[in-house]
Amino acid sequence: MKLTKENIQFIDTYLKNSDVIYIDIRQEMLDHIASGVEQKMATGQQDFYDAFKEYMVVNKSEILKNNRNRSSFSWDVIRQFLLFLVKPYSLGVGVLLFIFFKNVDVNLYFSEDFTVRNLFFVLLIGVVLFQLFYFYIYLKKRFYAIEKTGAIWLILYYLQLFFLPAFGTNDVSAITLTISSFLFLGYVVFFIQELVKFHKHRFNYI
Amino acid sequence: MKNSQLYKGSLTTIVMKLLEENGRMYGYEITQKVKDITKGELKITEGALYPALHKLEAEGVLEVEVENVDNRLRKYYKLTEKGSAETINRLAELEDFIRNMQTLVQPKLDY
């Protein structure tokens, strides 16, 4: 016995009210629950609401466990980012950056009012503003597939606070510049890759 | 999952083996298939299955196809080329593990 659009909407609202905020996660849970309820309705000769109630009493905690693991901080995405950074072409860019910073003293191009440290801070803030605009104004819906990259940004933000404090005045070494630029560029490219991947499959979620 | 500590490490291999045999499957179908094959002895929980599927997808072992089925979207998983090769390796590892366990648990005694 197949569920109606109203039944599907009911499950979706139930999941929304259970704090399953990401659409992509909710869709998969919804299909799982709907399949289980359909099976229950077929074998137990129950109506939708009885079958749904009975199914959720037994399976709710396990199904929602999948949502609890979906915090914005994802170790999986950090692992993917690190794997991306150690790819040969990424490392090649890292070497080129080091050669560049070793031979060009970029500190000379900045003043006390706007240091290299300030630049990295502004770049990171710029990236997060773009992401906020993209998530909340352009997409208007929340997708775990794309928001999970925020975990990497958070780490980069704390790293720059620690290694490149915005209020320091002394020059930044070539190694620090290389690592900072490497991580920042890596993150931008990684985010763009995820964005392209997400858009390629976006019709899947809407 | 029944006796989860023993089965936990084999979950991804079980999923990959099923996908190798069945082409493409969706989450609920995988749980039911395992239940049917093991006659209800082994039950894969949703809380274990979906994170495992998403991890395999992120690793490029699985790819996804989404279809509109019965008023909702359904996410089908299937093995990528890399995934098919990986399945062979993981099954070989699992078989080795089972063989070693059998040797340890039921050693053939020479008299």
Automatic annotation (TrEMBL), chain A:
Keywords linked to the UniProt accession: Membrane, Transmembrane, Transmembrane helix
Record field: transmembrane: 81-100, 120-139, 151-168, 174-192
Protein name (database record): DUF1129 domain-containing protein
UniProtKB/TrEMBL annotation, chain B:
Highest taxon above the source species: Bacteria
Organism of derivation: Flavobacterium buctense
Name the record gives this protein: Helix-turn-helix transcriptional regulator
UniProt xrefs under InterPro entries: Metal_resp_DNA-bind_regulator, Tscrpt_reg_PadR_N, WH-like_DNA-bd_sf, WH_DNA-bd_sf
Coiled coil: none
UniProt cross-references to Gene3D superfamilies, sorted A to Z: Winged helix-like DNA-binding domain superfamily/Winged helix DNA-binding domain
Domain Transcription regulator PadR N-terminal: 15-86
